[in-house]
Amino acid sequence: MAAAVAGPSGEWAWSIRNAGQAEARLSGWASGAVALYAATQTASTIALVATLPAVSRYIHQAFDSFGATPPQEPVAFRVMSLLEFPVVLVAGIVFLIWQYRAATTARALGYPARRSPALGAWSWIIPVVNLWFPYQAIRDLLPPGHALRDLVLRTWLCYICSLFAVTASYLVALSSSGLGQAVGCVAIVGWIVVGTGAYRVAKAVAADHAAAVGRY
Question: For residue range 182-209, what is the model confidence (pLDDT) as tens digits?
């Protein structure tokens, strides 16, 4: 009877250790990825603020010259856009793979979760639900009562506000470049806060899971 109980228990402990090891191989890369993403978004928004008057003129000229030869985009804005995409893409892929593995570890450890590991990772690109599903997925990587679960919420709200602030800066600049730049500066501060918070959360998840897996 004792052997029958020991078998499944040993298999369960092995699955936890296996999930933890798969996550640990990407943990350092994940914290670097979120820092790189936030730094890229910060630099991109700084470039936006610096070139916003030119971008505003470009948009107005593009509408005014409808049907004729369109004007050239500002060079700095075009270069920054080309550099931003591959960096964000690579950082995003690394982070999402890590998130899936971390969610798998959390599930094996018995942490309650609102979303499955796969849905949590894919939810970033699902319209509408990507406004709150990713937050729930990241929050649930930490156990209930963990001190940094509140930081996940604050970082997520700042992330959403920063995204909207970038879009708003374009729209506002159509009527006032100066006001659009002011809104863009709010987004810059937001990205810095997002990067700091996301880095701390990624490190906290890695540390919590390593300690929990180490008990098996």
Answer: 999 999 999 999 999 999 999 999 999 9
Residues 91 and 33: beta-carbon distance below 8 Å: yes
What residues contact 172, with CB distance under 8 A and at least 6 apart?
Answer: 179, 180, 183
Cα separation, 209 vs 203, whole angstroms: 10
Minimal CA–CA distance to 107: which of 96, 91, 99, 84?
99
Q: What is the pTM of this model?
A: 0.86
pLDDT in tens, 53-106: 877 777 777 666 665 565 566 666 666 777 888 999 999 999 999 999 999 999
Let me know how long the chain is: 216
Closest CA to 146 of 179, 112, 108, 171: 112
Determine contact, residues 158/151, Cβ cutoff 8 Å: no
HEC-encoded secondary structure of the chain: CHHHHHHHHHHHHHHHHHHHHHHHHHHHHHHHHHHHHHHHHHHHHHHHHHHHHHHHHHHHHHHHCCCCCCCCCCHHHHHHHHHHHHHHHHHHHHHHHHHHHHHHHHHHHCCCCCCCHHHHHHHHHCCCHHHCHHHHHHHCCCCCCCCCHHHHHHHHHHHHHHHHHHHHHHHHHCCCHHHHHHHHHHHHHHHHHHHHHHHHHHHHHHHHHHHHHCCC
